[in-house]
Amino acid sequence: MALDGCGLFCKYTLVIFNIIFAVVGFVFLGLGLWLRFSDNTRPIFEVRELNSSAFVMIVTILIALGAVMLIVVVFGDYGACNEKRCALQVFSALLSILAITEVVVGVLAYSNRDEFGLTIAEFYTSLYTLYVTGGGDPFIGAALTFFHNTLHCCGVTGVKIVEVVKKTCPEPAGFIEHFKMDSCPVTIATVLDSKASLVMGLFVGTGVLLIVALVCTTILLKQTKREQRETTAYYSAVY
Question: What is the top-level taxon of the source organism (predicted)?
Answer without folding.
Answer: Eukaryota
